[in-house]
Amino acid sequence: MTHELTFNTAMQFAYGEPAPVSPGIVRIVAENPSPLTFKGTNTYLLGMTELAVIDPGPKNEAHLAAILKAAGGRPIRQIIVTHAHRDHVDGADALKDATGAPILGYGRETFAPVGPETTPQGAEFIDYVFVPDVKIADGDVIAEKEWRLEAIHTPGHAPDHLAFALAGRNIIFSGDHVMAWNTTLVAPPEGSMADYVESLSRMLVRPESVYLPGHGGRLEDAQRTVRAYLLHRRWREEQVLEAIREGVGTIQSIVPVIYPTIDRKLTSAAALSVQAHVEHLIARGLVTCDGDPTWDRQLSPA
User: Fold this and answer.
1) Pair 262, 187 in one domain
2) What are phi and psi of 16, to 5 degrees?
């Protein structure tokens, strides 16, 4: 079984410059590029006369200034956060101070208050105590005269992740749930492969075909991409299971088997992704482990 994904890494942008991506929507890319954020975090301004800002991005004075300049004096009524990873949420407080707009998001109160020992971007890539001014749950609607957003709870990459469907426009702001430039990182304990696969499946029944993601360019024919990503996850899980059946017994030894050409900077991220698949296999009774599946703990086929 083989399955290779085709990614779209084309993206026309200039840091700090607002770029129209659809009528009434502009994108500003924050200058925080990395192997896991691609060119940087996308901030979207939605509306013509009264605005919402979706994902204010990292804490960065130049990015804040670019958002306010793009607003051009139009009032910013809401600051909407897809999830509390720092590259999306850290700029929210400064934007709130500048505009008076409330911060809307799912919130972190029901999740772990401290971080894992191993993270793909260092210990501080999640705001574990993020508390929005207005809590948004699955199915909630945020509305102004010019637009309506429906919240879609899409855990997997993060337990608090929300996507937002723009009513009447065939558009979903997909955050880090589905992107065109790469697959989404699912890194335990923050990420859950079971939740991610379920959230992807949920997107298939929605009618919207255009996604505006948190990193990278606009995604057309989005449901085709979602189907491809589901197939890719099943294929990757089969690789992990086959390796365990062949006696490759730890997460850290599986990584070079299924990622033979990986950039060394991404080794930890790859190990976390394998861990997510292993946890999913254990939950389904296909793999056993004597204790929690840490990277050096022995795994066996069930």
Assistant:
1) no
2) 80, -5
User: How many contiguous H segments (helices) and E segments (strands) does the chain have?
Assistant: 7, 14
Q: Which residues contact 202 (CB under 8 A, 6 or more apart)?
A: 152, 154
Assign 301 to helix, strand or coil.
Answer: strand
CA dist., res. 177 & res. 128, Å (int): 19
Total structural domains within the chain: 2
Residue 302 burial by CB count (10 A; 0-12/13-18/19+): exposed, middle or buried? exposed
pLDDT tens sequence for the chain (302 residues): 445 678 888 899 999 999 999 999 999 999 999 988 999 999 999 999 999 999 999 999 999 999 999 999 999 999 999 999 999 999 999 999 999 999 999 999 888 766 665 556 554 588 888 999 999 999 999 999 999 999 999 999 999 999 999 999 999 999 999 999 999 999 888 899 999 999 999 999 999 999 999 999 999 999 999 999 999 999 999 999 999 999 998 999 999 999 998 888 888 889 999 999 999 999 999 999 989 999 999 999 99
Non-local CB neighbours of 270 within 8 Å, separated by 6+ positions: 255, 259, 262
At what angle are helices 251-258 and 267-283 packed, to 10 degrees? 110
Tokens of residue 1, six digits: 């079984």
- The token pair at 172 is 């979903």
* Per-position DSSP letters for 44-82, written without gaps between them: EEE-SSSEEEE---SS-HHHHHHHHHHHTT--EEEEE-S
Same domain membership, residue 47 and residue 188:
yes
Classify residue 12: in a domain, yes or no.
Answer: no
SS3 252: helix
Residue 240 lies in a domain: no
